[in-house]
Amino acid sequence: MPATLDKDEAEAAAPHGARQRGDTYDPGFFARVVESWPAIDRVLYPVYAWACVLYAATVFYGYMHVQTRGGWSAPLDDVFIHFDYARAAARGFPFQWSEGNGFSSGNTSLLYPFTLSLGYLLGFRSLDLMAWAALIACISTTFFLVVAGRACEPLGRTTKYLVPPAVLSLGALDWSLFSGMENAFHLGVWALMLLPILSIGKTLDDPRAVRRDGFLAGLAGALLYATRPESVVCIAIFAFYAALLVRKPLGLRAAFATLLRASIPGAIVAVAQAVANRLFTGEWAAAGAIVKLALNHPYMNGEQKLDEYLSHLKYVVLRNTQHHFADWIPGQNLPWGWVVPLVALIPFFSKKTRGIAAMLWAQVVGWLLLVSLNGQVRWQNERYTMSAVAWLFILAAMGLGVLLTPAFEATRRARGLFALRIAIACGVVVLYGVHQAPNMRDQIWFFGRASRNIRDQHVVAGKVLAERKAKRVLVGDAGALMYASDLPGLDIIGLGGYHDLPFARAGVNGLGATIELLERIPPEDRPDHMAIYPSWWGDLPGLFGRRLVGVPVVGNVICGGAEKVIYKADWSALDRNGWPRTQREGERVIDELDVGDLVNEKAHGYNFPRPGMGFVVHRVLPEPGQRLRDLFDAGRIVPHGEPERALMNAPRRGGRLVVRTVAGRQVAAEVRADGRLLGKLEARPGPTWTEPSVDLPADLAPRFELAITPVEGEWITYHAWILEDGGAPSAGR
């Protein structure tokens, strides 16, 4: 419509009702709205996105408070791991799970705990820190929706208004965003990198602006990797997409420079994290990667690892499409959940959105491929997949926008096709809404009930420990227990960390390897209490604990067991001097191999046969010659014909190899030194430890390879000593 009309034109253009009523019609009003719409839109859309987020958050947190009777909690114990790290950082112990335990790589997100620590410093203490986490989640999610809306603007300014309801319509995604985990914060930082990437596409005629945006994207990429290491996929795809945008107008050299600017800062953070891990923990990998990735499993072969990976990948795809998007009951319903990814493919049919759609789809696929390496991807309401799900719903909103974008041709066929597209879009929305409504209701209920479960069991157990004034607490799930008790802790899964002891790697080797590391902790610093699920840890509580109290949970949907049990710990079976009980007068220990102790194994270059062999086992048996005193030791099961090897120091004047073992039936093993047969170890069934020995000649190399090969049954070496003739008996390890 022209900006100005004469009187006759204005009357003709006025609404029919206005002409009948004789009302004055101002044709300039609509023109002014159209002209000022960009300015209105810049304010309206963020307010609209914030309102959508606030409504969703109010629903989830509101029902949490119904379940917890007005108190704050969280639906996952892992939320409190972030809180543990945040509190330690606020108190001046950054990167520590428990103050005094030293640097820990167990928190997957480096950056998120520091944002939480700011809230702790501002006064959000105890469970109120969850209120601060909720505020961060709402701000981060709103920022994500605002920036994601810009990706839809090639279809017009109104299409982006589909993004907030689309993203927030999925109950499982809302559950993760408002859980207190780093999911929402991660999406906010992801949007921080998307912003300069989109800007590059609009400033290709200005090389200086392209360079500036490339640097900004790189800085955001560094923050993104520090938020979630899986974001390496996002950084690479963002950088490659930016390079493709730049290549045609500015040339290959500018494209390569953009690629480097956008990717190198993230790579620097990744290398810095690995170096810090190595310096402080002795491992290049983070503790979470060691514990959770099948790639680091010590007993699996390549085929088994691939099978597990493929099963995880299949699970994450089907769990979302056949459960979270829409329930699918084989034989009763069609798999309606596949409608979401199908609609998310529609942007490929529009030239305006094809490029951005390819970039987002690459991140969806790349993220799912990467997180499927994580053995925990099946748990925690599939939160590890939810970043990809959020990007998928941006694509779905974009797909609806393509369907709803009107055709400019005035032909009857064009109008008919547009009407058909509108009908398809409306049908898709109704179909999805019908299937998602019960899922949303279930997720809201699950959020509230899980939050109550964590409060009733983990938080209560933590308060019980605080009342008992425990010195240090051994836990199997580092989270709300330690946060609520505010006591020093030891996490035997390994995510908490204790100085440079490899608890994470010991955890995947077996419980015996973990207990071996406890021997290395000074007696005065060992945990005096345990708070664990008995079913998780086999005979640990029976061997080393005395039950004090159990903390049950009613209507459990999230906790690892129906009862968290607190024990008084007794590690007296670990208190030993480390010499063989068959040591003769005049012999001295010159070398000691403690099988199952990963630190000692590493120092001796110990190798057990792989894969599927060398499992760690442990026993607590009466000490030879002292039937009233128990003695703990761990070893590895080695099958018939397979050697275990280690580098040992040789005696200068001849001596003996003494091996501690225990057998349920007659067993024997050959002993070789640098391939030279020295003799045979034999063990008979008995109620306690036995220590057979083999004589060692004086002409061995100063550092020789010891090989013990079972020749009768399977053999378990728990401990091995090299003893040399002469000198006083050793008095220590």
TrEMBL record:
Residues covered by region (Disordered): 1-20
Sorted UniProt keywords: Membrane, Transmembrane, Transmembrane helix
Record bears the keyword Nucleus: no
Top-level taxon of the source organism: Bacteria
Transmembrane segments: 43-63, 129-149, 161-178, 184-204, 216-244, 250-272, 355-373, 385-404, 416-434
Keyword Transmembrane among UniProt keywords: yes
Descriptive protein name: Uncharacterized protein
